[in-house]
Known about the structure:
Layout: H1 8-13, H2 20-28, H3 69-91, H4 98-118, H5 128-155, H6 164-190, H7 208-236, H8 241-261, H9 264-270, H10 278-298
Amino acid sequence: MSYFGDFGDICTNTPSYTWCNLFYRQLSESSNLSSLLTGISSNSSSAPVGVNPSCGIPRVGNGGSLGNIGNIVVCALSLIVVIGLIFLTEKRKAAVGRVELRNMLIVYFITLPFQLVTNGSLLQQGSTVLVVLTAIHAALVATLFWALLANALVSTQVVEDGTMASLAPFFILCFLIFGGTLYIALDVALGITQTLGPSSNPSELRSVPLFVMTSLWPALAAIIYLGVMLYIILGMLKEVRPALYYILAGIVFVFSQLAWFLLGKVICNASGSKLDGSFLATIFETITVVILFLGWKSITEGAWDDPYY
Length: 309
């Protein structure tokens, strides 16, 4: 029976699920638990991302493996797309929430290189460098969804966008969420304090705090963001067309998660362990960000009317 916070089924049935790197280290470093790593996970030098995955992409260089080449390419292309969005956002000097949206895009941009490395089957499973990069990646993802939610809150104009009243709480909470999630992730893998890390039985692959910050919190933040934006557009601005952008973004984001969790093993088996659903998930996530930019653009002014400004 699975309990809240369990990662066992996910790490077995979802190829390239990034946070499984933390649990692999947890098992491999314990002489009593290393025997639980079986099959393709038993050899850390070639093991794919996951813990005893039913299908996984071997580490690059093993048996001619290119690693998770599909997601590596998509992450690289997404970096270019996000650079373009940041540039376009910066050009809209008078748009409400410009600074906050730019900050969110920057955080998303930073997550992409980490995603490329942490689920690209490039580094040896159980290595300290992979654990640290995975922990930073988890912290960045949690921070990204706070940045997303902050964009919705500033759109209500409760505080003026781009001012210290808006940016100070934004950066303070960014720091707290990043630091807290980083500590939790490192505690899971390294067992530094056992306070917020693994359960009392590490073989369960269970961590409620990690599950909350990497799964529950992002889902909750995305739902609240969508609700607030639809309220602003439909209730305050009395517009319909811009709302379609945000609804479409929500649908595409759901598709990204379905591609990862439902299609990952199917694609992995069909491709002979060369691809999985992670590259589709990244494509859909980047498309979601593009649609959010278009939605923001549709409800904001790009320049001041007065040429003096």
